[in-house]
Amino acid sequence: MRYSIFLSGLLLLLNFSVKAQVNAIKYRFEFEQTQEKTIAGIKSVMNSEVQISTAYTASENFTKIYELLARKYEYPEDVIIESIEDEKIVIREIASKLYTIVSLGYRSSFDMQYLLTFEIKDELLVLRVSNLKQGNSLSTSATNKWRNTDGLFLHKRSGKPKKSMKGITDVRIENHFNAIVESLQQM
Amino acid sequence: MKRTYVSVLILFLSILVSSAQSKYYNSGDTSTKKKHVGAKWLKGTIVLLDGTELKGDVRGSSYTGDDIRSFRYRPEKDVKSVYYKAKDCQLVIYDDLIVVSLPKNLKKNSGKRKFYVALYYGEHMSVLQNPKADIASGEAGKITFNNDQMLSYLILKDNDISKITKLFFKKKMKKLLGDNKKFIERSSDKKWFNYNNLYKLAHYYNQTK
Description:
Shape of chain B: globular
Number of domains of chain B: 1
Low-confidence stretches of chain A: 18-22
Shape of chain A: flat
Structural class of chain A: alpha+beta
Oligomer: heterodimer
CATH topology of chain A: Alpha-D-Glucose-1,6-Bisphosphate, Chain A, domain 4
Helix content of chain B: 10-25%
CATH class of chain A: Alpha Beta
Mean pLDDT of chain B: 86
Number of strands of chain A: 9
Number of strands of chain B: 11
Radius of gyration of chain B: 19 Å
Strand content of chain B: 35-45%
Distance between the termini of chain B: 39 Å
Number of domains of chain A: 1
Largest sheet of chain B: 11 strands, antiparallel
Number of helices of chain B: 4
C-alpha cells in the first residue's frame, strides 16, 4: 500500500516537472503581463529566449548563422561582439524605430538596441534577447542616449490596456524578433 | 619545488584575472563626448585586482577636477558602503560606463594606478578618455559642429599608451593599427574611417585581429 502511494506520488511529481519544462520552453517571442505594478502601470515582459530546431550539426549551424549575418551586414564584425566557434555568437544590433507609441493620432518612434545570443548546439539553436534599450542612435548626447527597457507598461494600474501601446508597441517588437526566429528556421 | 608551486599559483591567478576582465571586452559607449562618473548610486560592478567581482550599487566618491579618484560600493541599499581606489581594482562598471585602472608603468605593471574612462574596451586595443584632452566648444552666435566632443583620445595597445588627436587622426591610427590587414583595407572607406566613428573602428580592429 505504502509502496503504491509512494510510486503514484513520484509519478505525479515527474508529470509536474515534465509539464513545467514544456511550459518553460518557448518557440516564439511574446509579451506576458506580470504582477508588477508601478506608477507607470502594470509591467509586461517578453520571454528572453526561444528554441529553434534545425536539421544541422553545431558546426553547420554556426556557419549558417555567420552567412545569415554576412547577408545582412557588409561587415558582420561590426555587430559581432563575441564568437566562439560551433558554440555561440553574440551580436549587438540596433533596430531603428522599433519602439513605437501612438498617442492622439501621433506616432512617436525610437530605436532599440539589444544583444542577441545564438547558442549553438547539434540540431538546436537557442536565441536569447538581452540588454534591451530604447533611445536614438543618431543622438550625440553622452548621457541619456539609451535607456534600459526590461519591460513595457501596456496596462494601466486599473488593468485596462493602454490604447497608445497595447497591440502596437508590443506587437512591433514581437514581430521583429519573431522574424529573426523565422529566418533561422528557414536557413 | 617551492618555486614551481609559486609559478603555478601565479599562472592560475593570472588566468582567473584575465577571464574576469574578458567578460567586459567589446563594450563601451559610442559617443565621443566627454563622459563623467557621477556621484549618484547606480547599478555597477567592481572587479578587484584578484578578479573578484563585486556587484551592487556604485558611485563616484572623490575627484580631482573632473577625473575620478575613488569609488564607493555597496551590495545593496542601507548597507554600509566601502571605498575603492585605483590601486584596489582592475576595472569598474558604473551604469554602462567602463572605467579601467592602469598602472603608471604599463610594461612592468608597477607604479601608482589611475582610473581611465573607456570609450571602447577591447582585448587587443582599447580607447581611453584623455584626462588632458581639449574639448570642442562653441562661441555664442556661432554654429559649431560636434560641440563638447573630445579632441584627443588615448589608445591602449601592447601595454603602451599612445595619444591620438582629431587633427592627425587618420595617419596616427594607420600607424598604430597597421598590424591588422583587414583594418587597413577598410580604412580606404572615408565614410567609415573618421574620428566620430572611433568606437566602431576600435571594435572592427579587435574583431578582425
